[in-house]
Specification:
The protein is α+β, with helices and mostly antiparallel strands. The protein has two domains: about 190 residues, no CATH class; about 180 residues, no CATH class. About 55% of the residues lie in helices and about 15% in strands. The chain is built from 14 helices and eleven strands. Helix 4 crosses helix 9 and helix 11 runs antiparallel to helix 14. The protein starts with a helix and ends with a helix.
């Protein structure tokens, strides 16, 4: 065991000495591997960061959450002209499902409406996102309040003029002053602030609850009416934990079909969308991006591998005389093999580490310039980069190393002379 350990140590020392003595050659070899590893890990890090940011924006919603609306998340076999004739889900349907749908943890009726302007005394905030929801939305979205409370069922049903402000909206209107119980104006009407959300930070696409407000949906229903196409309604449902999703959706679909008096041969004129399906779609897209990036970056790494192999063949040629002397003094074939193999692997790993370091620097700079979007170089990607480097070095150096180990000592000395 000690003999093999000594063999490996001496082979390693010979490899390091050879790299130090040929600095220009070492640098050129490193360059190819560095560019290849940088390309691959940069792509992996960028796609991972993108996926993390998108999923982070959805993290407040459970993957089991179901959205009932007249639109479908993905493609549909139903012709577009027929889908456009589907009616919107209604508040009455929400109330019916709330009373008759089993295994429901929370159900909410929400209206997506246009942005509005909020005023408080002389201060004005424009382009505010309005969330018109019921009291159950607080359970489904898992909102976090910095102060105050969310509106209750009585306020939701009666359409009381109360409002919850996003962090940025509260800061712009009140600064360091107390926001609770203050009276703001929106839609030409007065609302009492009863809550302020915790700071969330901007999302990838600029959306954030920091720039949103939430108020009872029945307030917006009185303003817009129930047949206004400018307000897009949806029903959000969070099933009880452990409920079979397929069975739950089947019951939900049948309940709504019965309420709409649809015949058995008629198609459902609504869509039941699962948030899990949207998450799976994101996984599929990021997987394809990863694959494309790896294929493109692989060409860079291939060039780096060929560069190492070429340098190793040159090293074998230049050190033929030394190899012959080593073998004539008793050096075994495996000693020569490990010597050149270590040299190739060390080259590749150093190049890979430099590539990882460059990705780390770029990720820090990119995060600084993109504000709230954070580029992350994960430990897994660092491990992948190191392993890929080692494998490339092993593959690139194996043939030159075998060629060196099989040289005849007499012929090697004669050729070297």
């Amino acid at each position: 065991m000690l003999i093999y350990l000594r063999l490996l140590t001496e082979s390693f020392n010979f490899a390091v000495s050879a790299l130090i003595n040929n600095k220009l050659r070492t640098f050129l070899s490193l360059l190819g591997v560095t560019i290849g590893i940088f390309s691959i890990i940069a792509v992996l890090a960028a796609v991972d960061s993108l996926e993390r940011e998108i999923k982070g924006s959805l993290s407040s919603l459970d993957n089991s959450t179901i959205m009932v609306m007249r639109f479908k998340f993905g493609p549909s076999e139903i012709p577009r002209w027929k889908r456009e004739q589907f009616p919107d889900v209604s508040y009455d349907e929400y109330q019916y499902l709330e009373k008759n749908l089993p295994d429901v943890e929370a159900i909410d009726y929400a209206l997506n409406v246009g942005r509005e302007t909020i005023k408080f005394e002389e201060k004005t905030v424009s382009q505010v996102e309005v969330g018109a929801v019921t009291h159950n939305y607080y359970q489904i979205e898992a909102l976090q309040l910095a102060e105050g409370r969310f509106f209750n069922e009585a306020e939701s049903v009666s359409g009381t003029h109360v409002i919850i402000l996003g962090h940025e909206i509260a800061q712009n209107l009140f600064g360091q002053r107390e926001a609770l119980r203050k009276e703001i104006r929106m839609y030409g009407q007065r609302f009492i602030v009863i809550g302020v959300l915790k700071k969330e930070g901007a999302g990838l696409f600029g959306g954030s609850k920091d720039t949103s407000v939430f108020l009872p949906v029945n307030v917006i229903r009185r303003i817009y009416g129930d047949n206004n196409k400018a307000a897009f309604p949806q029903i959000l449902i969070k099933p009880n934990e452990g409920v079979d999703n397929a069975e739950f959706i089947a019951v939900l679909t049948q309940k709504l079909r019965n309420y709409r008096a649809l015949k058995p041969d008629e198609i459902s004129n609504f869509f039941v969308n699962q948030l899990q399906g949207f998450a799976d779609l994101i996984d599929n897209i990021t997987g394809q991006l990863n694959l494309m990036g790896l294929v493109i970056s692989g060409f860079s790494l291939l060039v780096g591998g060929f560069g190492i192999a070429n340098i190793m063949f040159v090293s074998v040629k230049e050190r033929t005389n030394l190899i012959g002397i080593q073998k004539s003094l008793g050096a075994k074939n495996r000693f020569i093999l490990f010597q050149f193999l270590f040299e190739a692997v060390i080259l590749a790993i150093i190049g890979g580490l430099i590539g990882l370091f460059l990705v780390w620097i770029v990720s820090i700079l990119a995060s600084q310039f993109t504000g709230d979007f954070e580029f992350v170089l994960s430990p897994w990607n660092m491990f992948i980069g190191t392993m890929v480097s080692a494998v490339i070095g092993l593959i690139s150096g194996i043939i030159p190393a075998i060629a060196a180990s099989k040289l005849d000592p007499v012929e090697a000395i004669r050729t070297g002379m």
